[in-house]
User: Fold this.
Amino acid sequence: MGLPLAMSTWGVEELNAIQKVVDSGQFTMNKNVEIFEERFASYHNSKYCVMVNSGSSANLLAVAAFFHHSSKRLKRGDEVIVPAISWATTYSPLYHYGLKVKFVDVDSKTLNIDCDVLKRAISNKTKAIFLVNLLGNPNKFDIINNAVDGKDIIIIEDNCESLGATFMGKKTGSFGDVGTSSLFFSHHISTMEGGAIITDDDEIYHILLSLRSHGWTRHLPIDNTLCKKGDDPFYESFRFILPGYNLRPLELSGAIGLEQLEKLDSFIHQRRENATYYQKIFRTNDKVCIPDEVGSSSWFAFPFVLNRNYSDKDRRKIIKEFYKNQIECRPIVAGNFVRNKAVEWFDYEVFENLSNADWVHQNGFMVGNHHYDITKELDKIQNIFEEIL
Assistant:
């Protein structure tokens, strides 16, 4: 392939880790998952991590946890602000829990939520903001923190595309009450399928542990915030206190994740090297727009948005030429999500307008970034722009 959307980041270390789990015969969640959780939390300078079977499940549990909090921090009908561009599973948990979704436009310069519009969108009905660090790029958390200062508003941070990014020296994913990560094949590190949630809140952590495993008490520590737990395994192993799920990761995922974490910084270093070149050759291109970097992006992918003089017809010509040259591309995440039929199921409103999200939806596309040098492929992309436009 000239430039695939995704490539394996595994080496012999991951294969050896898999074999050790196979040899042990212990495939369900166990010690490797526990160690991974400790190291993933430490990487983010966070207190707790709960590993799950996907980033989508991480988002689901992140929302669910606030419904079961002792202070009932979320309830059906509450208003949650979201950016108009993200993946479907940012929004789906909000539908499943009967929340009112308020879509806010994105900043055309960063592709993240427009902070000026966000400040106007916050009302006395707003109970949570589900932020998304899109394609590796951090949000402007200093502005957002000022906007919610003194207000009882939950911050859920979807960091599924931005593992390893930083803002003012702090890892993304650790700014909110909870932060979620995806460990899917195409992401910064991969356990094939997998996800994680980080938090510093003791009660949220205990709720997550229970919800992840059927709603039972088996994986709760003796001292926890949810119930008085005894030491009788006959009773406690099958005692249910919450309406939970089975979203546990495999022990294989924990073992692979430990090897991938060792390589994460080197992966991100190369992604940033590629991004330096991407910015160099496309920043002054008057035919396409690329996002401004906020903080230190981990550059999940490289987005392009044709300037407003062009149309979807021009985009289709470029995409056709990309595929001729074995350059895979796709829409920018899910584009403007309000354009998707799925929202017909939602209780939602659009705040003001989504003009920037529409522009990205109509004129945007993205190509993959990787843990190896792709400067030649980026040169080829530039040549195609020149030929077509």
Observations:
- The CA atoms of residues 229 and 380 lie 61 Å apart.
- The mean pLDDT is 97.
- The chain has two domains: 12-258, 263-388.
- The two ends are 24 Å apart (CA to CA).
